[in-house]
């Protein structure tokens, strides 16, 4: 298993859980995401992007980090370029740090849909801001290590059929139409288990250290 952590331009809260998730991984940064490196005590092996969102002070501070520069007129975001480079370097597991929030909600949405695509292609993916975590749900059974009373939601990107156990509001083979709020704002009440019988979904949780 080769794990890469990719520093993206969204929100970040440094927690012990996040530090543990990053431990031992290789690190790449996408444009302004490199601002998270100092807070995490990390030095990326590569800094990727067109650098249109990294000001002169940040570029000077991180001048020692090797760069791969792309033109602003390109067909991929800096984050997607970082993903492609990590996969080319042998990544089998990705932690997308700063995947939520930030000034670009379109990028945060892309990170969620991209995570689903990557998971379906066989790459394990975790999205995180420290305060929030996202895990793609493939068809099958999934168990999670969240503490009791952790808030979580299952976000459906299609119609779903889903079962949820060890939660305040369990479900059993429940059909959930696309756009329904039925699977939002639930709480862990044991060893959370989610089984996706059909559809495409992402679990988003608010872990508590």
UniProtKB/TrEMBL annotation:
Where do the Thiamin pyrophosphokinase thiamin-binding domain residues begin and end?
140-202
Coiled coil segments of this chain: none
Q: Which UniProt keywords apply?
A: ATP-binding, Kinase, Nucleotide-binding, Transferase
MF terms from GO for this chain are: ATP binding; kinase activity; thiamine binding; thiamine diphosphokinase activity
Enzyme Commission (EC) number: 2.7.6.2
Gene Ontology BP, a term: thiamine metabolic process
Pfam family, any one: TPK_catalytic
Superkingdom, natural source: Bacteria
Q: Which InterPro entries match?
A: Thi_PPkinase, Thiamin_PyroPKinase_B1-bd, TPK, TPK_catalytic, TPK_catalytic_sf
Could you identify this protein by its name?
Thiamine diphosphokinase
Organism listed in the record? Tianweitania populi
What is the organism lineage in this UniProt record? Bacteria, Pseudomonadati, Pseudomonadota, Alphaproteobacteria, Hyphomicrobiales
